[in-house]
Amino acid sequence: MKRVLGSIAVLGSALAASLLLGPGSLASTSRSADSNTVNVVEAGSTDFSSADVLYWVDLMRKNGINVNFNVIDSASTGLKTVISGQADVFIGSLPTAILAVVNANAPIHIIAANDQASDYIVVGLPGTTLANVAGKTMGIDTPGSAGQISAEIGFQKNGIDPSTIHYVTIGGTSARTAAILAGRIDLAPIHYPNALIAEASGKAVQVLDVGKALGPYIQSGLIANDNFTKSNPALAQKVVNAFINAERWAASNKYAYIAYAAKNGMDNGMTGPEEAQAWDYYKADNFFGVNGGICNKYFYDTVRLNWQLGTLPKPLPVPASRLVDQTFVKAYLKAHHQKPTTC
To answer: What are the b/e assignments for 296-334, b being 16+ CB within 10 Å?
Structure first.
């Protein structure tokens, strides 16, 4: 249970700390009188893997929603914003959100998922393989973040004890990519597009394809403050509708996705063939949450994988309904004449 306790400690300090993002960076903790405004935070960094998120923001704006969108490199800080109510919705890791509810009764629910498979690739310095990762140093975002947890589960599935690896906090994918290319760390879980670039440079090699090791796994979800969904359910429904529409667009429009990412500076310097290869990878792995991503099967698959690692308590001490609110996804699916249990 060492991993659980470590994550709990980090989460406890995160909840205890006051949020200091600077004046005007996000809205007040009280709901705005403008019922058509949504405050959105994404954890990590914007890159090719998250073009769907920016497209979602654009869709909301085109649908008349006022959107305040912020990207925060620290996953723990991003989680604090939604717990405190400074953000209405936050895109981040499910296990950390679950622990926030389990340990601190955080007023949040998971209401949709955008990434229903992991696209993390653990890259290492040349000569690194699964056979020699023990004792090496891996850069992570923050303790308990999506990259670390999914990579650890992937290691475990390949017979490697994750506790034999040393961890150092570096920041988002861009920071971790820079650190591995500079030789400052031995390993880093980074998104697939960044891994292509790192490998093409000759300064890093692929050590583990996390997505293939895990199978269905909710890497990233839409986590909402309960005050937002309860006080303005109509707006929350519009937010989820646009969210799923963005995922369906991303999964069905290869060249439009590539063009959109390039137009918004999210191609990370990839070549055209590399961008096409990255999108093909997403399509093959059913990466995008085209049906909301939080059906019971995907949710419990994710929880069970975390149980294997010890990053979530077993059994969960709260019912699934305290963690996941499927109301909005089910309403979307019903409107599109699909079964509410569709994955």
So the answer is: eebbebbbebbbebbbbbeebeeeeeebbbbbbbbbbbe
